[in-house]
Structure formats: C-alpha cells, structure tokens
Amino acid sequence: MKEFNIVLAGVGGQGTLLAAEALGTAAVKDGLNVRVSEIHGMAQRGGAVVTTVRIGDTVHASTVFEGRADVLLGFEPIETVRNLKYCSEKTLVIMNTEKIPPTELASKNLKYPSIEKIARDIGLFTKKIAQIDAAELARKAGNSLTQNVVLLGALAGTGILPLKKQSLIKAIGELVPAKYAEINLKAFELGRHSMEKGKEA
Questions:
Q1: Residue-range domain boundaries for the chain
Q2: Does the domain at residues 4-197 carry the CATH identifier 3.40.920.10?
Q3: Which of the residues 18, 56, 106, 148 has an alpha carbon 20 to 30 A from that of 181?
Q4: Cα-based angle 16, 20, 22 (whole degrees, multiple of 5)
C-alpha cells in the first residue's frame, strides 16, 4: 500500500492523541510502516488540536500535505471545518456533531453555526460526509469520555481503513486502563455499527 493519510481534528480533552496513538499502534501490529505526528496546537482542555497518522510504504514523514487526506476525523464541528484544507473530493469526512464552542465565539459575540451550515461548507470540498453523535453513543456505552473510541469504531465501520479491526481493538485495549476496557469495546462497536448502518460514503 502506497499511503493512507488520516487527519484527526478536535479540542484538548477529547482524546484525539489517544485515538491517533491507537491507529499507529494498530498499524505496527499489522506490520505496516506508520508515522504519527506530535500534537499541533494547544493540548490543554478546550484548545484546538490536530494530529496526523500516515500509513504506507512510501511514508517517511508525519506531515499530511493540504488536499491529501484520505480521512478527516472531526471530533468537533468547527474544528472539522478549520481543517478542510487537508480535504479533496476523495476525502471521507467523519464528523462528531457535539458542539464545543471555542472561546473566541463568546468573546466576539458570534453564534455557533448550525450543523447544516457546517455540512454545506464541508460539501464544498467533498460529498463524502458522515455525521455521528459520538456523545450519545459514548453515553450508551457507559462513559461520555469514550467519544474518541466511538469515532475510531465509526472509522473502522466504513471499511476504508487499511487496518485489521482486531488490531485496532487490541491497540485500544493496551492504551486505556484495564478497568475501562469493556466500556471502550462497547463504544467501539456502537461507533462501528452506526457507520455500517448509515453509510453515506
């Protein structure tokens, strides 16, 4: 496989880095060449965070060039829009619909745009858009902090990820505390099934 590029965009506290680590660990388990970027942006709670995962034989650096993402995994709607520069018409955008308003909206007295408007903006770049209420599915799994694992499950459910599902599940199991393993597995499966049922891309 030449290359497969994933951009993860969210805010601090959403577990984007753990999700990127899980993808990287799963790729290693599958014997694939992989590069995972450091965090770009503010890792503290509420700050914008972007991480990248690149898998493939020709990958030597962790940088994803603009327009070259195969997947944009959006943990938060506005952060998804902010990172559309990585997208082209071939990119699949999976977007969590839970809003975490950035502080500058309040400071500038701006309203948070509707999800419909955000979806239209994404549609200018790619028609491959899947929306998922990861917060609701994480609550169903038993812990609202498992939204990142719900999103990984959704990504696995699309069938385009060049990783074995079992490798990703094992990687998540190694990275989360053992006492939360069962809840995280449930979150992963809820995310996966939601995408398999409602595939839009």
A1: 4-197
A2: yes
A3: 56
A4: 115
